[in-house]
Design brief:
The chain has one domain: 3-Layer(aba) Sandwich (Rossmann fold). The protein contains nine helices and eight strands. It has helices spanning 16-27, 34-47, 56-65, 94-104, 107-118, 133-137, 151-160, 171-187, 209-234; strands at residues 3-9, 30-33, 68-72, 78-82, 85-86, 126-130, 141-148, 200-203. A hairpin with a 2-residue loop joins strand 4 and strand 5. Helix content is 50%, strand content 17%. It is of the alpha/beta class and 235 residues long. The chain binds cytidine-5'-diphosphate.
Amino acid sequence: MKQDVIAIDGPAAAGKSTVASRIAEKLGAHYVNTGNMYRAVTYSALRTGLKSPFDRKKIKEMLENIDINYVTGTDGKLILTMDGKPAGTEIRAPEISRHVSEIAAMPEVRDWLVNRQRQFVSLGTIVMEGRDIGTVIFPDAKYKFFLTASPEVRAKRRLEQSGETADGATIASVAKEIAARDEMDSKRDMAPLRKADDAVLVDCSEMTADEVVDRIYAIVNKSMLQSRKQSINVS
Ligand code: CDP
């Protein structure tokens, strides 16, 4: 049976978060940003005093003592918490971006998060974004999209997101940082960044966020209507 999931994967700063959260809103679905979960683990490691190159055993020990998860907030939306407190912009800081791919390559970390990520399907329709949602977390997701954009467009967009780049950052320096992260994410052994064979590729280089949302929403909505019609005919 296919999973009631809209999987949105893609490289760094391709615009996944804006698009995925808006699609979730339009569909009345839950939204989970798995990148922020890896960022929260990285934040916790640095706060605990661990340093790169990170020791796998120490990271494993740390995971036994922390809790990172999405919980349902008062408005019904899922919010990411670290040890019970809502995670804020601290997890999007440049220092976290610098270390997150090293942490995300560790099997101990991925195993720890995979179980948490899979459990959300019990809540109903879910829009989940990341790097391995369509390939590993939900290989049987009903809908899969892979968002990409040129390195220059991605660097420009990241520079426009306040607090996410270092002071004095330029398009060239940001492009270099995201290229390094993409390379680490694509070359790791476990759950590397890659398009699932059955994912729809959306090149967002020349599209506004609204256009991307409209395109994805049109595909998902049409197919949802069709399957509703089919189930009415059957019953
Ligand atoms: O927002 P941005 O494109 O900068 O990245 P993110 O979605 O916040 O993800 C941060 C990092 O988490 C990525 O560079 C990956 O190393 C890792 N990640 C992952 O390994 N698997 C996922 N499903 C999501 C993120």
